[in-house]
UniProtKB/TrEMBL annotation:
It is found in: Mitochondrion. The keyword Nucleotide-binding does not apply. It comes from Trichomonascus ciferrii. Transmembrane segments: none annotated. Belongs to the AIM24 family. Its main location: mitochondrion. Coiled coil: none annotated. PANTHER family: ALTERED INHERITANCE OF MITOCHONDRIA PROTEIN 24, MITOCHONDRIAL (PTHR36959). It holds the Pfam family AIM24. This is Altered inheritance of mitochondria protein 24, mitochondrial.
Length: 216
């Protein structure tokens, strides 16, 4: 048996995206490996990979390992969310999540919306692009800033200052109230969803969240 640390990504692309670093194990006879993650309630799933579709791993920490003739490479413009694609002719991928793991089958002409923090992985057809982040219709809830209201009501401010104060309160609402972000996909597609959501800030950084909130 041999084992070595491997990076398949070309050195020229290391600066533009996070590489996939893994331990490659080869053996001439059957062996057994024990894998695990740092989680209070870990659940595991093994999914097949075929030429008909690829798997997009939504959260890097969910990817434990894989076997077979597979390619695992960076994907997507996001740094942490949905940026690993697994493709190949035949093989299996071991995934892990927190809480229970459920498989959702989205049929053709159906649309499914889910919290991105609950998504572990989903399938992608080679010519597929029917997926996007969307904002749900916003509720009337907003972040109240008492000192800002008191200041603007007692002092006569120019219009530009009032607009700035309003934008500041709106920005605080968007920054702190992020449960209206959803991941929208169309079928046919398979999704793996964990019941315990990951902190959204651990899978999408500040700039990515701002882009989503602005509808970009």
């Amino acid at each position: 048996m041999t084992s070595k640390l491997t990076i398949d990504q070309p050195a020229t692309k290391l600066a533009s995206c996070l590489p996939v670093v893994y331990q490659k194990v080869t053996a001439t006879s059957p062996i057994t490996l024990l894998l695990g993650i740092k989680a209070q309630e870990p659940y595991y799933a093994v999914v097949p990979v075929s030429p008909e579709y690829n798997w997009i791993i939504a959260q890097r920490k969910a990817l434990l390992g894989w076997t077979g003739n597979l390619s695992v490479a960076p994907y997507s413009r996001f740094k942490l969310w949905g940026n690993v694609e697994v493709s190949g002719n035949q093989g299996q991928v071991a995934l892990a999540g927190e809480g229970g793991i459920f498989q959702v089958e989205v049929q053709k002409d159906q649309t499914f919306m889910v919290n991105p923090a609950n998504v572990i992985a989903y399938t992608r057809l080679p010519d597929d692009s029917s997926r996007a982040f969307v904002r749900l219709p916003h509720t009337n809830l907003s972040i109240d800033i008492p000192w800002l209201k008191k200041y603007t009501s007692q002092i006569q401010l120019p219009e530009w200052a009032k607009r700035t104060a309003t934008l500041l309160q709106s920005w605080a609402t968007k920054l702190l109230w992020r449960d209206d972000i959803a991941f929208k996909v169309s079928g046919p597609r398979t999704l793996l969803i964990q019941t315990k959501a990951t902190n959204l800030q651990n899978v999408l950084d500040k700039n990515e969240l701002n882009d989503i909130l602005k509808g970009q």
